[in-house]
Design goal:
heterodimer, A: TIM Barrel, 11 strands, about 40% helix, B: alpha/beta, TIM Barrel, five-stranded parallel beta sheet, about 35% helix, about 15% strand
């Protein structure tokens, strides 16, 4: 299956192609993915071993309908109960799980649904992650917005009424350094009530700096908690270092961020194990940092540019729904974000059960908000990371949420 | 009954039902206030701090006293900053202190709450601290200048009812301030019970937000709170917990 990911661009030089093929075919040509690179901070943390030992010993085939029924009857969902809810034995109980999940969601969040939008400010990347449209060997239009362009994008977004923004870059320290991201955060604070970041992992002091610049929420996706699989998918670049990525959220909290978000890209490896690890990552970190706000996302792999062969069907909507219900029952207090990779139909349904946050007015391209929001055409845009399914604007998302009897919320945040 | 008034910060209220507003659609606030007969509504400052076209503040009827809360604060210092911001936003002088260092259970931090209460009371706020029912803390809050004490009945959003009943009773018996039961009340019968115990008022949000018919539940709470208050004022009748009472008094042998 792995070979389905590999795409050779005709624009690569002979040397680059050779290097690429060597990385793909010869594991010995790749660096040790468990070893920190120079400059990467190593923190003293007990979270990772706890998560990994639970994940490694998780045998979801051993759970039965009886375990699932018991899990649904327990008032407090234990780790064992959660494992049962994620297992195949729970699939026939999906409706019951949804009922319980909806109750927990309404107890903790009422009928509120938060709306935000992502803003990609650069798509340069130094990593070779074989499944990603931004990967450094992929031939796409690269772009990095300057401050003036960023401010322009932000104005267009803010005028639509949006109050929360998530700033994203490709993972390139060289092209998008911490200072550059910090300046973008400062600008964002002028236009938005909450600024989140989804950028390459950095050290504690850098998170502290970005927090001072105005960011208060950090999202880092682990992609997969399966270290062997991770090694086969992230062939080159700093992102290859699995443990440095794992501790990102903890470093962000140590740096003073109020909240952190987590996820695996479901479908890269065994999704049940990845879902278990994602939730336990939240669970153990919350016990250590009880004041922190936590949220989970649930991306599935979707078609990407120059690569239509990936088949993400191992996580169907039913399984995704099961994972989300299990998350909600196990972690009733965490936010759950459902991305625009999912259809409007799925998102409309899942916000009634478990999700508390959705994006709207989404573009995963660079510098194209004006053309997307106002219909102005421009050829100076960067290519998109992935295709989205739900392209609703803020207004139509707002109206749809209200129409479902839920309460759209654009801001619930104060910088204090 | 008509002259039975609840006085907080020099303001008189005839209703003893305080309505939360964060968990249901803001368009329903007006109807809920009306059917609950509420004269006080709490609003999270962080929700009111918006440029959104529909600001929650616009949906609070004018005759209702607004009680901004400091949810989102993790320390006394943050709560103080939020309270000041509420004043700037035009929310008046009432403030409900909520300080949570725990995003899982949202249990209030009593120690930080005392610090914030003292500071804000000195700045002229009418301070209504949300707290875990601890007698010593309640005394400190009173000394710090709190206008009321708001102990939790159970974890917020849990609808569990009076899990801390015995400790709330101690506060009612010992603290000369209105004791307002906040958080965890899930049903009108539980609100009624707290009022029978002598609570000054009840605050609820989730119980209404999760009800099938929000405004009908609001009026059910109103009735239950009134019933409980009347029962308290009338002096509850004797309730035997065990056995029967002897018809011949045990002390009947005493002669002089």
């Amino acid at each position: 299956m792995e070979n389905n990911y590999f795409i050779d661009s005709e624009f690569l030089s002979k040397e680059a192609l050779e290097r690429k093929h060597r990385l793909e075919n010869d594991p010995a040509s790749r660096t040790n993915h468990m070893e920190y690179m120079e400059g990467m901070e190593k923190i003293d943390s007990d979270i990772c071993p706890k998560v990994i030992s639970q994940m490694d010993s998780y045998d979801y085939k051993k759970y039965t309908a009886k375990d699932v029924r018991a899990a649904l009857e327990h008032e407090t969902c234990t780790i064992e109960d959660f494992k049962a809810l994620l297992s195949p034995a729970a699939e026939p109980f999906l409706e019951k799980m949804a009922e319980r999940a909806r109750l927990e969601t309404s107890k903790h969040f009422g009928n509120t649904v938060y709306i935000f939008t992502p803003l990609y400010i650069a798509n340069y990347c130094e990593n070779y992650c074989v499944y990603c449209g931004f990967n450094c060997y992929n031939h796409i239009r690269r772009m990095k917005l300057n401050m003036e362009q960023i401010e322009h994008e932000m104005k267009v977004i803010a005028e639509s009424g949006m109050e929360e923004i998530l700033i994203l870059t490709g993972e390139s320290r060289a092209q998008s350094d911490v200072k550059y991201i910090g300046e973008a955060c400062k600008l964002a604070r002028k236009y938005f009530r909450l600024v989140g970041l989804e950028v390459y992992p950095v050290n504690t002091d850098e998170y502290k700096y970005l927090h001072e610049c105005g960011a208060d929420y950090v999202t880092v996706f682990q992609e997969t908690y399966d270290r062997e699989k991770y090694e086969k998918l992230h062939l080159m670049g700093h992102k290859r270092v699995w443990p440095y990525r794992f501790d990102s959220q903890e470093r962000a909290l140590m740096g003073g961020m109020r909240g952190v978000a987590f996820s695996a890209l479901l479908g890269l490896s065994d999704f049940r194990k990845d879902a278990l690890a994602s939730a336990l990552h939240v669970y153990y970190l919350q016990r250590k940092y009880p004041h922190a706000e936590m949220s989970l996302s649930c991306p599935r792999l979707r078609p990407i540019i120059n690569n239509e062969k990936i088949d993400p069907l191992d996580v169907h909507e039913k399984q995704l729904c099961q994972v989300l219900c299990a998350y909600r029952i196990f972690l009733p207090f965490v936010g759950i974000t459902v991305s625009s990779r999912e259809s409007a139909r799925f998102r409309n349904g899942i916000v009634k059960i478990a999700a508390t946050k959705v994006s709207a007015g989404v573009s995963t391209g660079i510098g194209d908000h004006e053309s997307k929001y106002e219909g102005k055409e421009s050829d100076k845009v960067g290519d998109e990371q992935f295709e989205i399914e739900d392209s609703r604007s803020l207004k139509s998302m707002y109206d749809d949420i209200s129409g479902e009897g839920l309460q759209p919320v654009l801001n619930d945040y104060l910088y204090v | 009954m008509n002259d039975d008034k609840l006085i907080i910060g020099g303001k008189e209220f005839t209703s003893r039902f305080i309505l939360g507003s964060g968990k249901y659609s803001i368009k329903l606030i007006e109807a809920a206030v009306k059917d609950a007969g509420a004269q006080m509504v709490t609003v999270a400052v962080r929700r009111a701090n918006t440029t959104e076209k529909e600001n929650i503040l616009d949906y609070i009827p004018k005759e209702v006293t607004l009680i901004p809360n400091t949810s989102g604060a993790r320390t006394a210092e943050e709560a103080i900053r939020i309270a000041r911001l509420a004043r700037e936003l035009g929310c008046g002088d009432f403030v409900k202190i909520e300080i949570m260092k725990d995003t899982k259970y949202l249990l209030p931090d009593n120690y930080e709450t005392i610090k914030a209460t003292e500071k804000l009371a000195n700045e002229g706020f009418v301070v209504m601290p949300y707290m875990y029912p601890d007698l010593n803390v309640a005394r400190s809050l009173k000394d710090a200048g709190a206008a009321t004490i708001m102990p939790l009945a159970a974890p917020i959003g849990s609808n569990c009812g009076l899990a801390t009943k015995n400790f709330i009773q101690i506060l009612i018996d010992e603290i000369d301030l209105p004791i307002i039961v906040d958080a965890g009340i899930g049903k009108p019968s539980q609100a009624c019970e707290a009022m029978e115990m002598g609570a000054a008022a009840i605050m609820a949000n989730t119980a209404l937000a999760t009800a099938g018919d929000l405004t009908l539940m609001a009026s059910a709470f109103k009735d239950a709170i009134n019933a409980g208050r009347k029962a308290y004022l009338s002096g509850l009748g004797r309730v035997l917990t065990r056995g029967a009472s002897a018809s011949d008094p045990l002390t009947g042998f005493l002669r002089d």
